[in-house]
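Box 3.1 A note on notation
Throughout this textbook, protein chains are presented in two layers. The first layer is the amino acid sequence; the second is a token string describing backbone geometry. Keep the layers aligned when reading.
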Amino acid sequence: MKVNLTVENVKQAKLEVERLEMQGYSRDEIYIFAHSKARGEHISDALHTEEVGMSEQGFIDSMKNMFNSRGDELRNKMQAVGLSAHEADRAEEQLDRGKLVIVANKHV
């Protein structure tokens, strides 16, 4: 089961992560995306959620992301954890507005 949420800030993200845990998701199944790479890593570290890596994307896609724009990289990573291309496009638009996107997926 996949959940895709958009929140305004880290405080809301923390509350949503806690709600997802109550619904049976582990923190290893929850991904938080921010447009800024440093912000996304900081939030994932602070909330102990997972970061998208080679295990989700595979080696080739991980290497491609090194040369992609940040928007392309984010859309690729969101698709790797279960969003459709259309959902990833819409989510990336929210990231452009400074929001955070949370994806929880039990089948990653």
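Residues 10-22 form the longest helix (13 residues). The mean pLDDT is 84.
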